[in-house]
Design a protein that fits this description.
Blueprint: E1 2-7, H1 11-26, E2 30-31, E3 40-45, H2 50-66, E4 69-73, H3 74-79, H4 81-87, E5 92-93, H5 102-108, E6 129-133, E7 135-137, H6 147-150, E8 154-156, H7 159-171, E9 176-180, H8 195-202, E10 210-213, H9 218-221, H10 225-232, E11 240-242, H11 250-256, H12 262-276, E12 280-287, H13 294-307, E13 311-316, H14 333-356, E14 362-369, E15 376-379, E16 385-388, E17 397-405, E18 410-419
Parallel strand pairs: 1-2, 1-3, 3-4, 4-5, 6-9, 9-10, 11-12, 12-13, 16-18
Antiparallel strand pairs: 7-8, 14-15, 14-17, 15-16, 17-18
Helix pairs in contact: 8-10, 10-12, 13-14
């Protein structure tokens, strides 16, 4: 069977799409890029905001017309299965909790629901990057979040399974290992341990690779923050933290039921810089939450300018079905657009400054992917993206002389190739 796999959304859904590709290929099916050539299509969906949902509706409709068998998975399949069947009555819905059942669903049109250890499933590599889901679900109750409805509860995967997955990825040439989930801060809370324990356990596995920790909500991370930073203070772990603050106003955070304060976020930033020194802190902000006032918006601008994150995701609030925030009176769209534009300008200024701080320096970096043909994207130990003007093999370590920066990356010349790795290309895990 020729199978087309199409993936949208966050690192977790990208990882799940990678696993489904590996499962289909391992079962002897041929993966094809073009839906028109496929007998079956697998669509891994995202429904985090309304704009994305509309895109998913378009893709479901298009793929349903192109293939004999359509499998819809991801968050929309779990949170809005009725919507999926309204668009494509004959589509097969595969919840993210049962993605290991893809092959029987493709071949027999049915599957047996059962808990699965996602860390133990095969996955493909994207250039030199392997993404490993360490837990499903979270412990938050944010009023705006539909993902909580798609992935209820918390299920963490065993440390031993994650260690094996990291080892497998390294053996196949991975240079970057991404530990990801809805909230990595929730990891292990159902098993009597935490993310710091996991990082300490897996950080010795990589040889040429580094570990990147995924999104961590402040209210869960603060209780073990010092232990986590100590575990991260290791050459095999990137100095990178993704800590979503969402707003610079405690009033808005309370309305969102975020369970952390502005001061908590500031504390995480301060401690990370104290312990790790050179570090990239990423964060997320939501613009135009229904209770947001002009003073709240100004507080968000001030917080970003005061904490100087190296990466900021700016998202306009989008009411999602089934969430408490969708029941609130919404702000004027023009007002939200203006606030979003201002925050985007702040973001670009901060990110450009973060990249440009390296200008004139010679930094060590490792090639992890090829985004644009003829160039290489490398990462420093603090996870700064550095674009090099040559296409070098994945895993190559270089000393690079930084010449400038954009909001998205630093630009550099190659001063010296330290280790010309000939990493193997992506392939399916053998286990």
């Amino acid at each position: 069977m020729r199978v087309h796999v199409e993936v949208y959304g966050c690192a977790t859904t990208q990882a799940e799409g990678s696993t489904m590709e590996a499962l289909a290929r391992r079962a002897g099916h041929e993966l094809v890029e073009e839906p028109a050539r496929a007998d079956a299509a697998v669509l891994v969906t995202c429904t985090v905001v309304d704009k994305t949902q509309r895109r998913m509706v378009e893709r479901i409709q298009a793929l349903d017309e192109q293939v004999d068998t359509l499998v819809v998975s991801g968050c929309m399949a779990s949170a809005q299965p009725g919507k999926v069947h309204e668009i494509a009555p004959h589509a097969l819905v595969l919840p993210p909790s049962n993605l290991d059942q893809l092959v029987p669903l493709l071949e027999e049109g049915r599957f047996t629901p059962a808990p699965v250890d996602k860390a133990g499933l095969p996955r493909t590599l994207e250039d030199g990057i392997a993404t490993i889901v360490i837990n499903d679900g979270c412990l938050g109750n944010c009023t705006f979040c539909i993902t909580k409805l798609a992935r209820p509860g918390l299920r963490s995967y065993p440390i031993e399974s994650i260690q094996d997955a990291v080892q497998d990825a390294v053996d196949r040439g991975a240079t970057e290992i991404r530990l990801t989930s809805m909230d990595t801060g929730a990891y292990g809370q159902d098993r009597g341990h935490n993310l710091a324990d996991l990082v300490e356990a897996v950080r010795e596995v990589p040889d040429r690779a580094r570990i990147r920790i995924g999104m961590l909500n402040p209210f869960l991370g603060i209780p073990f923050l010092d232990d986590l930073l100590e575990a991260m203070d290791h050459p095999n772990v990137y100095n990178f933290l993704h800590v979503p603050v969402q707003s610079g106003s405690d009033d808005v955070l309370d309305a969102m039921d975020r369970e952390h304060s502005v001061e908590d976020f500031e504390h995480v930033c301060e401690r990370a810089r104290e312990v790790l020194g050179e570090v990239t802190i990423a964060t997320d902000v939501i613009v135009g939450y229904p209770t947001e006032t002009e003073a709240d918006h100004r507080a968000t601008v001030d917080l970003l300018e005061g904490t100087w994150p190296g990466h900021v995701n700016v998202t306009r609030f989008s009411p999602r079905p089934g969430t408490p925030a969708a029941e609130l009176d919404q702000l004027d769209g023009g007002l939200v657009k203006d606030r979003s534009r201002e925050l985007s300008e702040v973001r670009d200024r901060l990110q450009r400054a973060h990249r440009s701080r390296l200008a004139g320096q010679t930094v060590e970096a490792t090639v992890v992917e090829h985004v644009v043909e003829g160039t290489s994207q490398a990462r420093t130990g603090a996870y700064d993206p550095v674009v090099l003007p040559e296409q070098l093999p994945i895993g190559t370590r270089v000393e690079a002389r930084v010449t400038g920066g954009t909001p998205a990356h630093a630009e550099a010349e190659i001063a010296e190739v330290l280790d010309d790795a000939q990493a193997e290309g992506p392939r399916v895990a053998g286990r």
